[in-house]
Amino acid sequence: MSELVTLARPYAVAAYKRASETGTADQWSTHLAFLSAVMADQRMQAAASNPKVRREALVKAFLALCEGRLDSEGQNFLRLLIENNRLSLVGSIAELFEQYRAEHEGYINVDVATAYELTPGEKTKLTKTLNKVLGKEARLKVSVDKNLIGGVYIRAGDRVIDASVRGQIERLAKSLWN
Fold it and tell me: Are 110 and 141 in contact (CB under 8 A)?
């Protein structure tokens, strides 16, 4: 995994630098998310990694598939990835791009898993608390995970806050066995 990030980093840096210069970070985010979704398909991965497929044919096929979804810079970026045999990295490139964007714009994406749906008031309160704790604007992506039993599981970058009942039970069991 770290090898993929190492290979993807220069492309993500270049894309973010270009997006910053032109004020098109939203467009770049959309383009990279779309390309990531396309490459998540196993058939597309197989086609992109097939050494028998000529690069020109691959570029032509991908541009046809992405018609109307990529501007000229997005198309050029796609060509660059195909020519350098790096199309499989687009998911990692998109993740790194979003990290650079969040860091530069002063926010952090936070994944929150809860046992039950949060009310709007609970979301607001949690957002305010995370803003203070993290020192940045927290942008929540909330999902429901019934396996948590109760409480919340929060992931913000490399920080994890496990305030779930399941996590407490696991920690209790671990302490009893040690």
Answer: yes
The pair of structure tokens assigned to 116 is 């039950």
Joined together, the tokens standing for residue 47 give 């086609």
For 2-102, CATH number out of 1.20.1260.10, 3.20.20.70, 2.40.70.10, 1.10.520.20 equals 1.10.520.20
Q: How far apart are the first and last CA of the chain?
A: 32
- Is 88 within 8 Å of 7 (Cβ atoms)? no
Q: pTM here?
A: 0.74
Residue 4 banded pLDDT, cuts 50, 70, 90: confident
The DSSP-derived string for 65-123 is HTTTTS-HHHHHHHHHHHHTT-GGGHHHHHHHHHHHHHHHHTEEEEEEEESSPPPHHHH
